[in-house]
Amino acid sequence: MISIIITSWKEPNTIAKCIRCIADRKYSGLEGSFEILQLSPDKETLDEGLREANTLSLSNSEYIQIQDPQKGKPYALKLALKKAKGDILIFTDGDTYFEKDAIKYLLEPFEQKDIYGVSGRPISNDRRDSMMGYWGHLLSDSGHHRRSKQLEKVYGKGYYKSGKNFFPMSGYIMAIRKINIEIPDDVLSDDAYISYSIRNMEKQIGYAPSAKCYVKYPTTITDYYKQKVRSIGGFIQLKKYGVFKKDKQSRSLLIELPYAFFVLRYPKNLKELLWSLALFPIRLLTWVRIYWDRVIIKKDFTKTWVRIESTK
């Protein structure tokens, strides 16, 4: 059985499409028995999810709602992990949607017994003709570039596999075998925590670039800071959990510096080149803010995990 876990909060306008692109077998490539677990704290999103499940004629065993007590995403994920019955668990968010056959491609790497986690490919759903929209494409494509360079291409297959090196999975679209894992209540990068935990079990991480998930990125500088300080800053926080055993930390200012060449090669015209150049000081300020919040003042989890309105 496959369990699909969708975490969603105040996303009544997007949850139906998220559920539909998974439950429609002809579209998603999903085979065999499955269950969709939707975790939401708000009635509006739960109601829209149930309405779509009824439209798709999903049974009570195929669609399950869990009332999220709104204690943070890690807490919600732990509720889902206790409830899920699947041998493989797929994680995504209620404000994203998968491309055709995404689930089929996401599950392919599990044919290798030592692969315990697989990341799909997040793709920006924004227009590229504005600076913020361009940044969304640049950053999502740089993630694809890094995974495809860090991991090893499996001969004759359309996916990659970690070896000596790896890069953490993306929480927008990832799958894991059902394993005993305890997610800390205050972890900021749950996807990275799970990725490092799998590697510490001496298991491998796969990357399926054909498993595409469309994501809306921040459209304001303020929301950009909020999102990146939380998500990237979570890698700094991971040190306190002692997960850097088999692998070193994979995100830091120094590690990002070599990617300056990718940022400069990515533009297709002069306007985009200027937007690429503008990203450098913004990224530097982001890292300054991250070190301030995580290392200096050690900002509280509840103040760091804030809703990013412009991505909804």
Automatic annotation (TrEMBL):
Q: Which keywords, in A-to-Z order, does the entry hold?
A: Glycosyltransferase, Transferase
For this protein, the record's InterPro entries field holds: Nucleotide-diphossugar_trans
- Sample GO molecular function, one term: glycosyltransferase activity
SUPFAM superfamilies linked: Nucleotide-diphospho-sugar transferases
Q: Which domain of life is it from?
A: Bacteria
Alphabetized Gene3D superfamilies for the sequence? Spore Coat Polysaccharide Biosynthesis Protein SpsA, Chain A (3.90.550.10)
One Pfam annotation, family name?
Glyco_tranf_2_3
The answer to whether the entry has keyword Transferase is yes
- Its family? Belongs to the glycosyltransferase 2 family.
Q: Which PANTHER family match?
A: POLY-BETA-1,6-N-ACETYL-D-GLUCOSAMINE SYNTHASE
- What is the designated name of this protein? Glycosyltransferase 2-like domain-containing protein
Organism this protein belongs to: candidate division WS6 bacterium RIFOXYB1_FULL_33_14
